[in-house]
Amino acid sequence: MHIRPFEEDDWEAIWRIIEPVFRAGETYAFPTDITEQDAREVCVEIHPATFVAVDDNNNVLGTYYIKPNQPGPGSHVCNCGYIVAEHARGKGIASEMCEHSLSEAVSQGFRAMQYNRAI
C-alpha cells in the first residue's frame, strides 16, 4: 500500500467509499442525503489537498483530506478527514494515512493538527 495525491480517476472509487459513511450519519456532520457533487466539493474541491491510499494495483483503499481547521488566525492548525473502505478496515490503513498526514501538515506549513472524535 502507498499514499499518493488524489487524481481525477480516483473519484468514483472515493465516492463508493465515502457514500455509505455519509449516509450513516454517525461520524461526519454532512447531510445524510448529500449529493455526489456536494460530497466531491467538500472532499476534494475546497481542500488544499486530498490523498488516497492505494494497493499495488492502484485500487483505492482509503482517502483523506487536509485543510485549515479555521480561517484567519486559526489557519496554522489543520484538520483532516479520513475514511477507509469497509473491506479494508482493520489493516492499519487509517494509521498509515494519519502518519502521512502529519508529515504532509508539516510540509504545508501547519504548526498543529486538531482531531475531532465521534463518540
Short description:
The protein is α+β, with helices and mostly antiparallel strands.
Which short descriptors sum up this protein?
33% helix, 24% strand, globular, single chain, 5 strands, 5-stranded mixed sheet, 3 helices, alpha+beta, 119 residues, Aminopeptidase
Number of strands: 5
Return the structural class.
Answer: alpha+beta
Termini separation comes to 29 Å
- CATH homology-level superfamily: Gcn5-related N-acetyltransferase (GNAT)
Gyration radius, in Å:
14 Å
Largest sheet: 5 strands, mixed
Mean pLDDT: 93
Estimated helix fraction = 25-40%
Trace the largest sheet across and list its strands.
1-2-3-4-5
- Report the β-strand fraction as a percent range: 15-25%
Q: How many individual domains?
A: 1
CATH topology: Aminopeptidase
The helix-strand sequence is: EHHEEEHE
Overall geometry? globular
CATH class: Alpha Beta
CATH architecture: 3-Layer(aba) Sandwich
* Low-confidence residue ranges: none
- Helix count equals 3
Please, could you describe this protein's structure?
The protein has 119 residues and is of the alpha+beta class. It has one domain: 3-Layer(aba) Sandwich (Aminopeptidase), CATH 3.40.630.30. It contains 3 helices and 5 strands, in the order E-H-H-E-E-E-H-E. The protein has a 5-stranded mixed beta sheet with strand order 1-2-3-4-5. Strand 2 and strand 3 form a beta hairpin. The chain is globular and about 35 Å long. The mean pLDDT is 93.
